Amino acid sequence: MNEELKPAQELSEILQVRRDKLAALQAAGSDPFQITKFDVSHHSREVVENYASLEGKTVSIAGRMMVKRVMGKASFCKIQDREGMIQCYVSRDDLGEDYAAFKKLDIGDIVGVTGFVFQTKTGEVTVHAEKLTLLSKSLKPLPEKFHGLTDVDVRYRQRYVDLIVNPEVRDTFIKRSQIISEIRRFLDARGFMEVETPMLVSNAGGAAARPFETHYNALDEDVRLRISLELYLKRLIVGGLEKVYEIGRVFRNEGLDTRHNPEFTLMELYQAYTDYNGMMDLTEAMFRHLAEVVCGTTTITYQGTEIDLGKPFERLTMTEAVKRWGGVDFDTVSTLEEARALARERGIEVAERHEKGDILNLFFETYCEEKLIQPVFIMDHPIEISPLTKKKPSDPSKVERFELFIYGREMCNAYSELNDPIDQRARFAAQDALAAAGDAEANHTDEDFLNALEIGMPPTGGIGYGIDRLVMLLTDSPSIRDVLLFPTMKPLD
Q1: Contact 254, 260 (CB under 8 A)
Q2: Any residues with CB less than 8 A from the CB of 283 and at least 6 apart, and which?
């Protein structure tokens, strides 16, 4: 039976037994919580993989005892550390009086073991314990080993237990760290500079999202948590840094679901003297590189579907996508009334504030997104939904923007950045009007950012990546909560 499901009285008895064991140790002058350090020479995988050179040599390992088999004068246990699990052989002949103390240890206790490396008759690499030290007493039992921690809500709330009893969870977060490290190596090798920008801002711009608000007492000023990294990074392009990126938390006051968490990790990068085509080339190369290095292949499986990151990513305009899957050619729709009529025919709800470009986007969301399984760049969005993007010279109703979709999900969003301060002021004014009409996600005019543009920003390509969604893809994780160590949870009543 899972320990969490045991009757309260039985669980209470188990807890009391462990506390009694601790009290006995303390009374005997062997309080494990008084131990301050243990010198670890090797970890489990290192010992196993290097057995040929370590056979017969003394090592010191430490970790949590996950298995214990007592067999009279000799016993076996398995110790779990950050790299995995390793077996230890423990005997009365080696430990003497300490062997009795070993037999009283509980699953979950943290121990240090010093001994020599050998191989059992079954071929398992093992540490023959010559000294065993209790380093920390576990006062609560772990979930029963054959069933593990399976309650999803408890797993997310008690991630520390989840990491102990579900090795695949630990592997996911190790891979997450590898992905972020490899992104940095990829960009650093291409001359990008990593920077940090403010999280507390007076004007939360750069995305369509509702910000969290707080008050800064020292300045008696209402401030917001950033929803994007964009506007400060562009200021650095103005300052001449040319290639910059930031990986950091952003905060959006929105709901919770399998793809959204109110705080999440975003990476944005900006490169002077390139456009959205340059950003597409960079993105395709980075995704392919990450798959090769982290997954060992450019053909990955996500939720049972094979995704090919090795072949060239398809490129479609939003209009082309809606024509292919929605059966409507918006290039032939000349008026707002025609667009609204088409939406009514299809049962697509349109608000009074929606313009023709907004309706094109609604058609795309309704008919196209779920069809975009293999990597595809959706390009040339309508200007109405892209307030910070440069217009297409050949069609001012559209902008030089793309989103990468994989498995029906947006993976990144990129622009040829708007660097015309007069145009940008006009678009901010339109956003101010939307905010005044009740749109809580509209941007507001940022005078300092406009001042930076008036100083002069070169032609620039920029892009934002949802790091959590990227990790979901490369670790085959169905929910964003599976790739966040501590996801936001509803309070327990």
Answers
A1: yes
A2: 377, 404, 412, 414, 463, 465
Strand-by-strand arrangement of the 200-201 sheet = 200-201, 221-225, 213-216
Asked if 268 contacts 228 with a C-beta cutoff of 8 angstroms, the reply is: yes
Report pTM.
0.90
Count of helix runs (H) and strand runs (E) in the chain: 16, 20
Q: Any residues with CB less than 8 A from the CB of 371 and at least 6 apart, and which?
A: 325, 408
130 CB-contact burial (10 Å; exposed 0-12 / middle 13-18 / buried 19+): middle
**What does the pLDDT look like over 319-331, one tens digit per residue?**
999 999 999 999 9
At 147, the pLDDT band (50, 70, 90 cuts) reads low
Radius of gyration of the chain (CA): 29
**pLDDT tens-digit profile of 331-380?**
999 999 999 999 999 999 999 989 999 999 999 999 999 999 999 999 99
CA distance 342 to 377: 25
Q: Which residue has the higher pLDDT, 194 or 6?
A: 194
pLDDT per residue over 79-98, tens digit each?
999 999 999 999 999 999 99
Q: What do you get for the CA distance between the two ends of the chain, in Å?
A: 26
Show the tokens assigned to 353.
């504030």
What would the two tokens of residue 449 be? 């950012």
The partner residues of 402 in beta bridges, in order of sequence, read: 379, 414
Residue 48's region, left for phi above 0, alpha for psi from -120 to 50, else beta, is alpha
Separation CA 474–CA 291 (nearest Å): 7
Residues 90 and 127: their CA atoms lie apart, in Å, by: 9
CA atoms within 13 A on the CB side of 147: 10
With a CB cutoff of 8 Å and minimum separation 6, the contacts of 203 are: 224, 231, 444, 446
Query: How many other CB atoms sit within 10 Å of the CB of residue 251?
Result: 18
What is the DSSP track for 3-34? GGGS-HHHHHHHHHHHHHHHHHHHHTT--GGG
Category of 187 on φ-ψ map: left (φ > 0), alpha (ψ -120 to 50) or beta? alpha
Query: Which of 317, 224, 318, 225 lies closest to 263, judged by CA?
Result: 225
Hey, is 45 helix, strand or coil? helix
* Nearest of 27, 23, 30 to residue 132 by alpha carbon: 30
- The rounded distance, in Å, linking the Cα atoms of 470 and 418 is 26
pLDDT, position 479: 95
| Token pair of 243 as six digits | 């290639």
Q: Which amino acid is at 328?
A: V
Q: Where are the beta strands (DSSP E) in 261-352?
A: 263-272, 299-302, 305-308, 314-317
Contacts of 144 (CB under 8 A, 6+ apart): 1, 2, 3
